[in-house]
Amino acid sequence: MCDAFQFSAVPLQNSALKFHTSLPCLSRLRICKSQRLNVLPIVASVSISRRSIIRLALLTGVFWKFTILNDSAIADGAVSFATKITSRRRYGPRILSLENDINCLDSYIHNHEWSKVEELVSEHYLNAQNKPRTGKFWLERNAFQLFSSGVFRDNKDILQKLENETQQFFAAATRLSKAASNYDVEESEKAYTDLKNSYYEYLHSAQLKTEDSVSL
Fold first, then answer.
1. Which superkingdom (predicted)?
2. For residue 133, is pLDDT > 70?
């Protein structure tokens, strides 16, 4: 009977052993389920972080638009103002320095000093040594252009007026040079009058005064 009992106990031991060995699987199953449950808060936190990143990006864009870009515009305006002052101080005196020569042209024409006239108004001429030279007025042509574009580049009306007066001034200089080469007093006087008028019209439009040549 003991043998029978021992024999029948073997299956019980085996079943107990199987139950014992199955415990880790059950515990692992519970752990897996608990891990799946714990994943949900992580996913939720990730989604919240993503929304926060998008919100932060939008706020950064708004900040950039209303602060950084505005500061850049202000800085650009400051540079433009500095450019105007620099152009007026750099090129204004060069334009004003021609006034004395322009006033002397009248006496040169009446005294038939044609070489002195050409030294001022001719774009190209030959000096006493038969060497090509450029007249003084033409050497300062870029001063007219740079002054106009530097000081009045944001005022199209005045800029256009200055450009027209500059063209009239040098057109009159060309006419005077041609008349001087032909020793034509009458035509020289007409060209000189146009040259002088266009010069002073430029000074008036550019708001340049003779006393500015010292203060600029």
1. Eukaryota
2. yes
